[in-house]
């Protein structure tokens, strides 16, 4: 019986989620079941940016989303505190203000978007 390994992009998503969970940061890749209360971390779909002989490099969007509007000091502080924790854990130096929409009918929620670069080793 042979087991088919998941594609490299899927392994990268799982790697980022697992790294955040190991650091005590709740994260998910399931956008359909995701709703931040009061904040949450959603790992997005990777983009392949480079391919080596035995490696692949991906850029992975990671969204830190606030379930509350950021019109109060507590909500802003909470969003940036979690954003800093995620950036530190994933060793990324930057994030930008963004938004996330859970469905076509929902209002977009405020978010910070981090772009994480992950290189995977491939079997020869």
Keywords:
single chain; 124 residues; six-stranded mixed sheet; 6 strands
Describe the fold and architecture.
- The protein is of the alpha+beta class.
- It has two helices and six strands; from the N terminus they run αββββαββ.
- The chain has helices spanning 8-22, 73-89, and strands at 27-28, 39-43, 47-51, 55-66, 95-100, 109-121.
- Strands 1, 2, 3, 4, 5 and 6 form a six-stranded mixed beta sheet that branches.
Quick recap:
This protein has 124 residues and is an alpha+beta fold. The protein has helices at 8-22, 73-89, and strands at 27-28, 39-43, 47-51, 55-66, 95-100, 109-121. 26% of the residues lie in helices and 35% in strands.
The helix-strand sequence is HEEEEHEE
Q: How many β-strands, per DSSP?
A: 6
Structural class: alpha+beta
Fill in the CATH topology.
Answer: STM4215-like
The CATH architecture classification is: 2-Layer Sandwich
Strand composition percent: 25-35%
Overall pLDDT: 92
Alpha plus pi helix count:
2
Tell me the major beta sheet: 6 strands, mixed
Over the alpha carbons, how many angstroms does the gyration radius reach?
16 Å
Mass-distribution shape: elongated
Helix content: 25-40%
Topology of helices and strands:
Elements: H1 8-22, E1 27-28, E2 39-43, E3 47-51, E4 55-66, H2 73-89, E5 95-100, E6 109-121
Parallel strand pairs: 1-2
Antiparallel strand pairs: 2-4, 3-4, 4-6, 5-6
């Amino acid at each position: 019986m042979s087991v088919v390994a998941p594609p490299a992009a899927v392994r990268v998503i799982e790697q980022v989620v697992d790294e955040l969970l190991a650091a005590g940061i709740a994260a998910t890749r399931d956008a359909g079941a995701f709703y931040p209360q009061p904040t949450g971390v959603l790992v997005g779909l990777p983009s392949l940016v480079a391919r080596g002989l035995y490696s692949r490099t991906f850029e992975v969007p990671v969204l830190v989303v606030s379930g509350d509007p950021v019109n109060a000091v507590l909500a802003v502080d909470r969003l940036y505190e979690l954003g800093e924790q995620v950036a530190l854990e994933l060793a990324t130096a930057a994030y930008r203000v963004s938004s996330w929409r859970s469905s076509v009918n929902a209002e977009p929620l405020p978010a910070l978007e981090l772009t994480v670069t992950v290189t995977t080793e491939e079997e020869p």
